[in-house]
Design a protein that fits this description.
Order of helices and strands: HEEEEEEEEEEEEHEEEE
Largest sheet: 5 strands, antiparallel
Distance between the termini: 43 Å
Structural class: mainly beta
């Protein structure tokens, strides 16, 4: 009886191998059967919150106000005259794309997912740059930018009450796809840097034309992720 079971098991295994080989052979000969596998997966990059300090506005509370400073603002309830009609703020995310290096040969698409929320009381413009090396104190050249042609994107100010105070703000969502040649530029990227220009005066078309009121807890929040598409030969 044991001999019969062993013989039957061997015959069954041989039968399965014949069927498997036949299927593989048919697949190879089938012109309609896909020869590649195209999986996709999501990768979180990170988030950053950019705030403005009193020093960013060029305010030094240890010295007297300069009469020639003609731009009035409020900061945390105090009135100041400053000379800057806009200030530049920066936030940075460390994300070494070399962590995807093993996949670069099979990478066919990258789609960045951007959520951005402007909680400042003035409409800002921003751009997101890719750097191999980045230091806030050392000038360096980005190799690419998230928004094409290096054009800065406009983000509307937060929702204001009658006194010019931000009561809430809305999140804007973007999906930006990179072409294959732009994907290759990302291989050595280590830093993603968000730069924004924050006006200290209102747009002439704004209905609310009083002095802009800034607070130390106002911010621009940015969240980034990416969706990676591969193409793998079967």
């Amino acid at each position: 009886m044991k001999i019969f079971k062993a013989t039957f098991l061997k015959a069954f295994i041989i039968f399965l191998l014949i069927i498997f080989y036949s299927c593989i052979k048919n697949i190879d000969n089938d012109p309609d059967f896909p020869k590649t596998w195209s999986p996709a997966f999501a990768v979180p990059i990170g988030s950053t919150t950019i705030k403005a300090t009193i020093e960013d506005f060029g305010i030094d509370t240890s010295i007297l106000k300069i009469a020639s400073d003609s731009v009035p603002i409020y900061f945390d309830g105090f009135h100041y005259n400053i000379s800057l009609e806009k200030i530049e703020l920066v936030g940075a995310l460390h994300f070494p794309f070399e962590s995807l290096a093993a996949e670069f040969e099979t990478l066919k698409s990258i789609e960045f997912s951007l959520n951005i929320n402007n909680g400042f009381p003035t409409t800002t413009s921003a751009q997101i740059y890719f750097y191999i090396n980045y230091s806030h104190d050392v000038y360096s050249i980005p190799i690419d930018s998230l928004f094409a042609d290096e054009s800065w994107k406009i983000f509307e100010h937060g929702n204001l009450n009658d006194e010019g105070i931000v009561t809430s703000s809305d999140t804007e969502n973007y999906r930006l796809t990179f072409s294959e040649n732009r994907i290759q530029n990302l291989k050595q990227v280590e830093w993603i840097v968000i730069k924004l220009n924050l006006p200290t005066t209102r747009d002439p078309l704004d209905i609310l034309q009083d002095t802009v009121k800034f607070k130390s807890n106002y911010s621009l929040y940015t969240q980034l992720g990416l969706r990676v598409g591969l193409e793998i030969e079967i």
